[in-house]
Amino acid sequence: MGQHTVLVANRGEVALRIQRACRLLGHRVVQVYSEADRDSLPVKMADQAVCIGKAASNMSYLNPIAILGAAKLTGAEAIHPGYGFLSERAEFADQVRAEGLVFVGPSGKSISLMGEKSVARDMAKKAGVPTVPGSPGLLNDLDHARSIAKEIGYPVLLKATAGVGGRGMRVVDSEAMLAKAYQEASTEAELAFGDRGLYMEKYLRDPRHIEVQVLSDGHTTITLGERDCSAQRRRQKIIEEGPSPGIPESMRAPLLDAARSLAQSIHYENAGTVEFIVSGSDFYFMEMNTRIQVEHPVTEVLTGVDLVAEQLEIAFGKRLSGAEKNIPARGHALECRINAEDPAENFRPSPGCLTSVHFPAGPWVRVDSHCFPGYVVPPFYDSMIAKLIVWGRDRHEAIRRAYQALSEVRMEGIKTNVDFLKTLLMDPAFQAGQMHTQYVEREMLTA
Ligand code: ADP
Ligand code: ADP
Ligand code: MG
């Protein structure tokens, strides 16, 4: 136990979340920050803070040299990357380790295997995990794309192999649209991710997004149940919950086993999430996120496991007992992502000064946020500024508790999606547990 110095290479709510786990384990915290985050809560709360550059991410949170320099300067022994930023850059994980430091995450090899999504699909298939019908590996060219689309049938989805954050995807309804879509998708992928590689999947109609949390030490993999993230807008998650209200009980064990098989097959180490797409009575592997996820508190609340503390302990050499193959969920949990954005203006980001803020509390209510009265939400980063997580004995109770907690939120000075979240919780399809990934956009946001 304890007494290491851990550098937090992230910002916002997840930086605070990592700091909490560090302190719980008795570690010293070094927080790096950009000029835009000088007055932020993670900086105030850390044992030591180091400015690593300008506001723009690529001048600070995406700059490995600045971060490794800060680690050297402060005597940090480990680096936790959080989510986003450098968390899924294999070279960064390798660099950190080459400096003799601990990277709180999987090996560079695992990150690069799973980060190239077309390769991940092939690995999943090899591990006996079902994948969506589509291209083996990357598409070579337009002719290749055409022949695979013909084989699997339209509509198809062109996906950037390096895609993240719900970006780099294009639905193609018919062969007539394929050439243009192929051209545009590869150009966009090149611009956004520096990699024009595309792969193809059958585009599934109104599926659910269900993912499995795993913890692995390179030998033993345990699963910690599933999360349902079907409430999405533009392929980005809005509300996540567990257990999933949308899968038959008979699907749960095979789903958990599939996630475990994939993690085992690559000797995965640390926390990870295997994402699946579920259509009717079938589930298919979609991708693996080789990091802590935004929605990890859902699982923490359901299982009682502190996932970030586990990440640190595994990184410092702890072995999992493996006595329990799956840690069961108790009751029901929901997470609502509170964003600085204006639903009336097509969810345009709404940075600025949060003149006043009050968060809910009470039984089984958790708020993860770096906000405080007078905090200025910078325009440079993700618009998510708080997460509300609640627990209930059953789904109905959890939904009611979430609604009530959202009603207590007061945020002035900027626009937020809080009222939209309340509308979503009250939506009949949501209440009936019938959410699918297209529902919000098609049924709630088109007039
Ligand atoms: P999760 O399930 O954890 O939400 P996402 O794929 O939605 O997974 O992304 C997680 C985080 O990664 C986002 O909240 C965002 O901060 C970050 N992110 C998304 N897209 C990018 C990108 N293109 N570059 C860097 N970070 C990104
Ligand atoms: P990212 O790396 O950006 O998170 P994913 O592959 O996880 O990309 O897909 C993000 C979202 O896109 C999914 O949650 C789902 O809503 C949608 N999606 C992905 N693949 C398909 C598919 N084959 N059919 C229908 N929807 C899909
Ligand atoms: Mg995903």
Mean of the pLDDT scores?
A: 97
In what order do the strands lie side by side in the largest sheet? 13-12-9-10-11-14-21-19
Question: Any low-confidence stretches, pLDDT <50, length ≥5?
Answer: none
Summarize the amount of helix as a percent range. Answer: 25-40%
* Rg estimate, integer Å: 21 Å
Distance between the termini: 56 Å
Tally the helices: what do you get?
15
Q: What small ligands are held by the chains?
A: adenosine-5'-diphosphate, magnesium ion
Percent of residues in beta strands = 25-35%
Shape summary:
globular
Structural class: alpha+beta
Number of strands: 22
Largest sheet: 8 strands, antiparallel
Q: What oligomeric state do these chains adopt?
A: single chain
Would you spell out the secondary-structure blueprint of this structure?
Blueprint: E1 5-8, H1 12-24, E2 28-34, H2 41-45, E3 48-53, H3 64-74, E4 78-80, H4 90-98, E5 102-103, H5 108-115, H6 117-126, H7 142-152, E6 156-160, E7 169-172, H8 178-193, E8 198-202, E9 208-217, E10 221-233, E11 236-242, H9 249-265, E12 269-279, E13 282-289, H10 296-303, H11 307-315, E14 332-339, E15 341-342, E16 348-349, E17 352-354, E18 356-358, E19 365-369, E20 375-377, E21 384-392, H12 395-408, E22 410-412, H13 418-426, H14 428-431, H15 439-444
Parallel strand pairs: 1-2, 1-4, 2-3, 4-5
Antiparallel strand pairs: 6-7, 6-8, 9-10, 9-12, 10-11, 11-14, 12-13, 14-21, 15-16, 17-20, 18-22, 19-21
Bound molecules: adenosine-5'-diphosphate (ADP) (2 copies) and magnesium ion.
